Amino acid sequence: MFRAKAKAPPPSSSGGKAAKKKKWSKGKVKDKAQHAVVCDKATFDRIMKEAPTWRLISQSILIERLKVNGSLARVAIRHLEKEGLIKRIVHHSGQLIYTRLTTASD
């Protein structure tokens, strides 16, 4: 009355290949930014109040923090410099970098 050992399950019928073929993901899609293209009174006041207090001011920073268009950010930076509220650090064709004015003169 000996029992036979439990049999191993029969091999799968796929013949050793993967059960499902790998599907490629579509990748992550970034949402289209909805930035302001016209400077209204509220945006202008916010630029004039907040931007001169930042330690680093560039076109990219204005776009990111104030949600404005790139061309609007360039115009705002030129306006702030003309008013004497910010000071230029680096003048490069690709990126203009400014800083706030300090009370002590350099």
From TrEMBL:
Top-level division of the source organism's lineage: Eukaryota
One Gene Ontology cellular component annotation held by this UniProt entry: ribonucleoprotein complex
Region (Disordered): 1-31
Annotated Basic residues bias: 18-27
Ribosomal protein found in the keyword field: yes
Keywords tagged on the record: Ribonucleoprotein, Ribosomal protein
InterPro entries for this protein: Ribosomal_eS25, WH_DNA-bd_sf
PANTHER family named among the record's database cross-references: 40S RIBOSOMAL PROTEIN S25
Family: Belongs to the eukaryotic ribosomal protein eS25 family.
UniProt-recorded name of the protein: 40S ribosomal protein S25
Lineage: Eukaryota, Fungi, Dikarya, Basidiomycota, Agaricomycotina
